[in-house]
């Protein structure tokens, strides 16, 4: 039962992530006075893409082919340790802030080098841009989480969640500043638009769904 519950939670989060991404797209369209797609459009796109043949650049190596499995595996592992329903981590063995940050770093590393592994200058530009965004934006995430860890006096996710849940009034200023850092980080990560001369938007949509999971 101790292993089954974290796995069920991770699968539920994976199933709900496209819905949250669809809600975000609808809200963004409404803010721009557009109708936009429905909230279930992400599910339609996933079903359509799963029915297509898997293709890749001829010059790509094993890193490009391995990256999707690494990304799914890392995100699934992170989802099993996050305290979503309960205050405590469902998987205490992974419920440490430093461990989760390293897992996020592994996912970002493979995501960046997979673009370099294709041999295309366009994907190399995208990989460089993704790495640069990580350098500029992710420190805000680290700062917000580290402030919460300092207030809790521990890097254990369960202790951090318990501290934020009860919200000690004497620590409202640092916790509020940390929450503001997280909000600014998510604003930039979910609201950014790829700078490109044209082409398909499939890559942008796929990365947006991934950001919702994170």
From TrEMBL:
N-terminal signal peptide: none
GO molecular function: lyase activity
Recorded topology in the membrane: Multi-pass membrane protein
GO terms for cellular component: plasma membrane
Alphabetized UniProt keyword annotations: Lyase, Membrane, Transmembrane, Transmembrane helix
TM region positions: 6-27, 62-85, 97-119
Pfam families reported in the protein's UniProt record: NADHdh (PF00146)
Subcellular location: Membrane
InterPro entries (UniProt xref): ComplexI_Subunit1, NADH_UbQ_OxRdtase_su1/FPO, NADH_UbQ_OxRdtase_su1_CS
Protein name per Swiss-Prot or TrEMBL: Formate hydrogenlyase subunit 4
């Amino acid at each position: 039962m101790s292993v089954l519950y974290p796995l069920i939670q991770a699968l539920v989060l994976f199933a709900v992530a496209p819905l949250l991404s669809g809600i975000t797209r609808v809200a963004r369209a409404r803010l721009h006075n557009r109708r936009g797609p429905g909230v279930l459009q992400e599910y339609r796109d996933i079903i359509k893409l799963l029915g297509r043949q898997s293709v890749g650049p001829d010059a790509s190596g094993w890193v490009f082919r391995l990256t999707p499995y690494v990304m799914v595996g890392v995100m699934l592992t992170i989802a099993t340790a996050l305290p979503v329903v309960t205050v405590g981590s469902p998987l205490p063995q992974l419920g440490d802030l430093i461990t989760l940050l390293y897992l996020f770093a592994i996912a970002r590393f493979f995501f960046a080098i997979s673009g370099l592994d294709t041999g295309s200058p366009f994907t190399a530009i995208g990989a460089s841009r993704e790495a640069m965004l990580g350098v500029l934006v992710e420190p805000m995430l680290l700062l917000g989480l580290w402030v919460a860890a300092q207030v809790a006096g521990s890097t254990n996710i369960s202790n951090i969640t318990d501290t934020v849940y009860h919200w000690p009034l004497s620590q409202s200023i640092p916790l509020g500043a940390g929450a503001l850092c997280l909000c600014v980080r998510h604003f930039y990560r979910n609201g950014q638009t790829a700078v490109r001369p044209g082409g398909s938007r499939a890559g942008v949509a796929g990365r947006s769904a991934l950001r919702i999971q994170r």
